[in-house]
Specification:
By secondary structure, this protein is an alpha+beta fold. Helix content is 24%, strand content 30%.
Length: 246
């Protein structure tokens, strides 16, 4: 059950309740209508599904899951909708929420420019003329990515060329008040040469000219990427679990 004094009626109230946490500043977007709920240290918010996941939360996982269960019971969350909640074991949901596609990931962020990287000067902003090359690279090197050329949620693409061949690319999925990197991809034959570091550093530096903070997401099993991002300054983290309501 949700009581009136737990309800946060707009984006400003949600940001204040989260202490303007970088994840909230990113996930809330710039202007979508939002409604939030606060319980026992957790803050959960809902946004229209066209703006991304239907719900996100920070704080203790247990109270956030309790709020989700109440919203499902009230018909305010529905099957098929995605949520990002504080890290938890899937078993914690077993008798409360029917879910599918449960995954753990980590939101990293930095407010500091990364140390200069070799070949960073090769990072360039890509254009529509590069779309066929981007599609070929993504299909070869990162077919499971959710960031693809033509995705309306991508603001810009950046890349590195070797001669006339595109060998690395990444998506700028910035929204709200912080920059956000996604879909960072290096051609299989070019890996181990520092291009991932150069691309990440170059994109981060570019976005920090427009935002005070830049974030990215990574699966904890991707140990090499986690090590790279920490080396480049992405040392602040928030552990999350994402799932789809069944």
């Amino acid at each position: 059950m949700i009581i009136d004094d737990q309800v946060l009626h707009d984006r400003a109230a949600i940001l204040a309740a989260t202490g303007h946490h970088p994840f909230a500043r990113h996930a809330l977007g710039s202007r979508p209508p939002a409604r939030g709920y606060r319980r026992d240290g957790a803050v959960l918010w809902l946004v229209p599904p066209e703006h991304g996941p239907a719900g996100c939360a920070i704080g203790p996982a247990g109270p956030a899951i309790e709020v989700c269960a109440a919203l499902v019971a009230a018909g305010m969350l529905r099957p098929g909708q995605r949520l990002h909640l504080p890290r938890h074991d899937r078993e914690l949901l077993s008798d409360r929420l029917p879910v599918s596609e449960h995954n753990d990931w980590v939101f990293h962020w930095t407010a500091t420019p990364p140390p200069p990287q070799a070949d960073e000067e090769r990072v360039v902003r890509l254009t529509d003329a590069d779309r066929p090359a981007m599609e070929a690279l993504v299909d070869e090197a990162f077919p499971d990515t959710t960031s693809r050329p033509g995705d309306p949620g991508v603001v810009d693409w950046y890349g590195i060329r070797a001669g006339d061949r595109l060998v690395a690319c990444g998506a700028d999925r910035s929204q709200g008040e912080i920059g956000f990197l996604a879909g960072l991809t290096v051609a299989p034959g070019q890996r181990g040469r520092g291009l991932g570091a150069a691309l990440t550093a170059g994109m981060t530096r570019a976005l920090l000219t427009r935002y005070d903070t830049v974030g990215l997401g990574v699966y904890p099993s991707n140990v090499g990427a986690v090590r790279l991002y920490r080396r480049l300054g992405f040392t602040d983290t928030l552990a999350l679990s994402s799932f789809r309501l069944a």
